[in-house]
Write a structure and sequence with these properties.
Blueprint: H1 2-11, H2 23-30, H3 40-53, H4 64-78, H5 83-92, H6 97-110, H7 115-130, H8 134-143, H9 148-155, H10 160-175, H11 182-195, H12 200-212, H13 216-223, H14 227-240
Helix pairs in contact: 4-6, 5-6, 7-9, 8-9, 10-12, 11-12, 12-13, 12-14
Main location: cytoplasm
Domain RecX first three-helical: 68-106
Function: Modulates RecA activity.
Length: 242
């Protein structure tokens, strides 16, 4: 009985684990020790060897002219730009005035910058799309750096007849949904045209003609509107600089 108990104890849950073959060195190698080339230590050594043999190369400084050209191309990708607009964009990015001038001169030579063509396209687009008159268009061209001579030439393609026709179209469009007394409608429509740059004489005539064709009440009000007197008053205002 004692023998069987001893045997059972030796083989039971409290029995000592069997001895591992191959010694303690083999046990360490199974856990990925330094003796195994593919273990963590071996990997660290390999990485260290690679990093030690390859030094990082410092980034080459960007050429300023190349950077300036990239800035200009990004600006021109959105819409045509004037020379002044591109010069402003380059200055904001820290490009020197000398480099900016060289790059912009080259863009002038190849036709990528053309302020005269820009001004003509701007006048046509903004007049047809937004109904802007010459006064408002001149202000927009000035804000974009177009010189006075170039702007005047472009605005010369928009004559007084075309301006008056556009003013009348704008009034007719607004008058379809306008509400209120003829006097209130008159003031709102004249103000709308004034904000778009139309002279007082052109604005008043356009609204007066439109009201005269609307209904009897509006036509009666229009009879008392003196477009010439208002135009003369505006001329005095501009001349005196008030």
């Amino acid at each position: 009985m004692a023998g069987r108990r001893g045997a059972r104890t030796g083989r039971g849950w409290d029995a000592a684990p069997p001895a591992r073959t191959g010694g303690s060195g083999t046990g360490r190698s199974r856990r990925g020790g330094s003796g195994v080339p593919g273990g963590p230590t071996g990997q660290r050594s390999e990485v260290a060897g690679r990093s030690g043999g390859e030094t990082a190369q410092p980034a080459k400084p960007r050429d300023e002219a190349e950077l300036a050209r990239e800035i200009c191309l990004r600006q021109l990708a959105g819409r045509p730009r004037t020379r002044a607009e591109l010069a402003t964009a380059l200055a904001r990015k820290g490009i020197s005035a000398e480099t900016a001038s060289q790059v912009l001169d080259r863009y002038d030579e190849v036709g990528m910058i053309d302020d005269a063509a820009f001004a003509r396209a701007w006048v046509t687009s903004r007049h047809q799309g937004r109904g802007l008159a010459r006064r408002a268009l001149a202000n927009e061209l000035r804000q974009r750096g177009v010189d006075a001579e170039t702007a005047t030439e472009a605005l010369g393609e928009l004559d007084e007849t075309a301006e008056a026709e556009t003013a009348r179209l704008l009034v007719d469009r607004k008058l379809r949904t306008a509400t209120g007394t003829p006097d209130a409608v008159f003031r709102r429509l004249v103000g709308m045209l004034a904000r778009k740059g139309y002279p007082a004489g052109v604005a008043v005539r356009a609204v007066k003609e439109a009201l005269a064709e609307r209904d009897a009440e509006a036509a009666e009000f229009a009879e008392y509107v003196d477009a010439d007197a208002l135009a003369d008053a505006e001329t005095e205002f501009d001349r005196d600089g008030l």
